Prior knowledge:
This protein is an alpha/beta fold and about 260 residues long. It has helices at about 5, 10-30, 50-55, 65-75, 80, 120-130, 160-165, 170-180, 185-200, 200-210, 230, 240-245, 245-255, and strands at about 40, 60-65, 85-90, 105-110, 130-140, 215-225, 235-240, 255-265. Helix content is about 40%, strand content about 20%.
Amino acid sequence: MFEFHENKVRYFEMQRENSAMYVVPFIQAKMELNKEVHVLEVGCAEGGVLKSFTDLGCTGVGVELVEGRFELAKEFLEKEIKGGQVEIHSCNVYDVQEDPHFKEKFNLIILKDVIEHIPNQKELLKCLKGFLKPGGQIFFGFPPWYMPFGGHQQICKNKFLSILPYYHILPKFIYKGILSLFKEPESVVKELLEIKDTRITIGQFKQYAKANALKITNELFYLINPIYKYKFGLKPRKQLPLIGKIPILRNFVTTCAYFLVKKES
């Protein structure tokens, strides 16, 4: 496991900085971000991504299912919470879809490295549509399944397994056998197998968006994921446009996909 996963203060700052440098400009290419924008982040973790938007004056709501990360978000965003700029809720996003406090309330919804952890993603997109104000947009950033580290194997305790690419796409029983052979903790094996079940590809995402009448307003593929600057010391690199148009190649070499979508007129 990478050191910053254990150092939560550093992890929060990494989230904030990465979002400010890459996610925010991607969204700003299609919409203004200011004090008039109300943001919902699904799976806000420690709150670093949300912080990059409140720094621009936006107000926000963070939803986080993991109790420990929810408590850290409240700690790291204490000033914004006390000032009425941010709310943090510990709940499942599916549990709030009928909540009137969430209905058609947000100009922007953010899912950064989250959709690949959530089951029934087609239904998720339908759920999120109900939270959007007219003209609102949804940002998705995720590692496509077939890319070298699409299985999130960087969370492995064994250093070799944490940097070994592509083995997550092996059949499930072989994948589990490798994790067990290297004596990965049961909790890590469970999480990695869950991600294998809830994985998402670029093609699947586009299918789900189309099925929910969501129009893609912006997309960007990375050869080298911006987050790898922190994990591997690598400089972020955008994917060559030609490769992005060849699915069989794109799926295996695109380490990060950004999408911005809105309701079709």
